[in-house]
Amino acid sequence: MSAATATSVEASSGTATRRQARDEDLIETEGRNGTTVEKTKTSPQKKYRHVAAVHSQSRPSCLSHDSPAAPSFIGFRNLMVIVLVVGNLRLMIENIQKYGVLICIRCHAYSRQDVLIGGLLYFLIPCHLLAAYLIELAAARQALGSRKRIKDGATGPSEEDRKKFHSTWILIAWIHGINITLALVATTVVVYFHIHHPLIGTLTEMHAIVVWLKTASYAFTNRDLRHAYLHPVKGELVPELYSKCPYPQNITIGNLIYFWWAPTLVYQPVYPRTEKIRWLFVAKRLGEVFCLSAFIWFASFQYAAPVLRNSLDKIASLDFPSILERLLKLSTISLVIWLAGFFALFQSFLNALAEVLKFGDRAFYDDWWNSESLGAYWRTWNRPVYTYFKRHVYMPMIGRGWSPSAASFVVFFVSAVLHEILVGVPTHNIIGVAFFGMFLQLPLIAITAPLEKMKLGDGGKLVGNIIFWVSFTIFGQPFAALMYFYAWQAKYGSVSRQMVQTASVK
């Protein structure tokens, strides 16, 4: 065979091969005008080729860490919700069959006095914010007079002005300290001695703590704004956002009322704002709050309450295996109730409130469910509280030369005290479980912190996340719920009656 003939054969063969591949994807059809139109072959007449390359490239599994794109877990999320709903619904039906309908509004031991005192305190507690406004108003008027003595071109305060400002701030700080202390102490005393119902007491105490924190933030922030107004220092600039309402123009009753209702604990003269209110968005969020609140109420009395009551004799007899079994059974419903409460408060209620107030910054939480350590959880799950303590406690202490560990110790100590006040006072049992449950987070954070930096790919983070969930869902909330419920029953309920009967028999 000559070279020319071989070349011709190869060319015709190549042409035939290309035509065959082309014919597998395209089909020729004759148009109305006689022209040939090529279209993608979608008809069932397409000939299937068993030589198609199915495995044509290297690809990782979908759930592997080296997968180029993260898969969506919406299906698993839906499955988890279905499993939780079905599992807890079955247990609720079981409780109904055993004990009958447990929800009884008239059975709750709340009195008219509880409602009246709780309502009165709700309107009296914000008066401490008003007192803080009057204090800052007097300080602002004094600052306006002092500003006239500042020389043009001054880059910083004189030593005399610095001492005078410091002495004035000490006086104002004492007045603010007395004011915020009364806001918390007076409410705590009234709740502990005069409000019997735990829910009413908890709502009242929570309002007092929020106002206490906001009043302190109002005082600290205006102190620094007043210092910058009277003694401008080069390099210490007030944020540009505040130029829309500079000091002392921010000391108004309207500005204070907005801060009182704003979904934040940190005071700023100006916040990022949205342009309009989406009332449909507000209605959806409030609907979620209502539905989730009803679910929490139903689940608490139809599922959690029987489990807690059935645990009383086990705790009294120190039957540790049975106590552990009760903890494991309680962990599921406590987690469900807590997740529902988290969504109702941080996603639904705070977003609805922010929408009504046109409050723009709505980062109320981060993806805390992916926390690789307990420290990451406390930084992400409750952003308003975290930013408050970072701004007003942690960073000022670091700036004054405190070590990070000492500053963290103070932050968790204050937070532990507030947790005990919020739980122990309304239940009339200050037993320290909430305090130590919060305060002992420090060593747990130190233990799990290295997992964030482990050089095991994502293995360390995975182990840290598992430790977080186990400690949080099994040994955290269920144990605290058991202890406070038992303490309540020992003081007011069935356990106390059993103690009285035992004593009378002896």
TrEMBL record:
GO cellular component: endoplasmic reticulum membrane
Transmembrane parts of this sequence: 114-135, 169-193, 335-354, 401-418, 430-451, 463-487
GO MF: diacylglycerol O-acyltransferase activity
Record region (Disordered): 1-47
GO terms of biological process kind: triglyceride biosynthetic process
Places the protein is found: Endoplasmic reticulum membrane
Ranges of biased composition (kind: Low complexity): 1-17
Active-site residues from the entry: 419
Domain of life: Eukaryota
Record field: compositional bias (Polar residues): 32-43
Primary location class: endoplasmic reticulum
InterPro entries in the cross-refs: MBOAT_fam, Oat_ACAT_DAG_ARE
Membrane topology: Multi-pass membrane protein
Record pathway: Lipid metabolism
Keywords from the named record: Acyltransferase, Endoplasmic reticulum, Membrane, Transferase, Transmembrane, Transmembrane helix
Record's function text: Sterol O-acyltransferase that catalyzes the formation of stery esters.
Family: Belongs to the membrane-bound acyltransferase family. Sterol o-acyltransferase subfamily.
Descriptive protein name: O-acyltransferase
